[in-house]
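Encode chain A's predicted structure.
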Amino acid sequence: MNVNYNFKFQDGRQVEFRVNEQPVEAVSPLPAWTRLEHCQCANCPLKPADSPHCPAAIGILPVVNEFQAEDAYQKVEVSVTDERRSYSKSTALEEALRSLLGLKMATSGCPVLGELKPMAVHHLPFASTDEFIMRSVSHYLLQQYFAKRNHREPDWDLNGLVERNQRLQLVNQALWQRIHSVCEGDSNLKALLNFFSMASSVSFSLESQLRKLESKMEGGTEP
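Encoded structure for chain A:
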């Protein structure tokens, strides 16, 4: 997996990021907010002695640094390319950053966010909430099918999916707290809040989200 994000601002500036499946290597000196104990996630399984710095914080560090003073709602032209296809969109910076940060976090080496890595391998930039729900549920059900085929107990009721997104919410909240003090602009913060909102849609309203998808798949209209 190699995904390239190119941002073009209205003043002509261009910024580019490349993401692959390998975690970002830490480059010293790292800022204090990346230390594991700084706003450490309540559900973090890592220990400072083994991992002095948060893998997710290191993963998003280049993006946070680049956009820390930017306005979330400014328009940017964004192109995303991988080995199979390319995408482009004129959108608010925060939407593009939500997509990029989500990919960075999933491939960062964080043991909790790593649960999203199967989705990251088939990354869909600028995904809507409906698309996020559809992809999350589809990936999870496929995992349950493989579990059944390998003689393990499948979870067809999606209970584990809800629990997964509850774990993701805790991580996202902690990451937001980590970067809050270093961001002059709101682009990174809004992007993480948007990502948090999507995870919340699975944790708190999965059933209603599924009803909407059911209606659409049956060719009906939303209630």
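The mean pLDDT is 90.
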